[in-house]
Write a structure and sequence with these properties.
This protein is of the alpha+beta class. The protein contains three helices and six strands; from the N terminus they run βββαβααββ.
Length: 95
């Protein structure tokens, strides 16, 4: 079963392996979790995580999402998934 400890910057995959998250990975997951079921645009992620003064590319966001998806996909029952909404952003779905 997947687990998240936002305060410790850690997640556990379906096999119980503890994975450390960077501050940004944890913040992205937290944002998606708080807005679960809603589309969160890449621009919204950049604004909330990096702030208005930083200018990472949307590819940077995609790279962070890749690692978080690996965690989601470790659960064979796929109870948690981060889906891409073409041309818009991402949505966290908890089944």
């Amino acid at each position: 079963k997947l687990k998240i400890w936002f305060s410790k910057y850690e997640i556990a995959d379906a096999q119980g392996k503890i994975i450390s998250l960077s501050q940004k990975e944890c913040a992205i997951l937290d944002l998606l979790y708080k807005k679960r079921g809603e589309v969160v645009t890449r621009d919204n992620i950049i604004e909330n995580i990096w702030g208005e003064e930083a200018f990472p590319s949307t590819r940077t966001v995609d790279n962070y999402i890749v690692k978080l998806r690996r965690w989601c996909e470790s659960d064979p029952e796929n109870l948690v998934e981060i889906t891409s909404i073409r041309g818009a952003g991402y949505k966290l779905i908890i089944h």
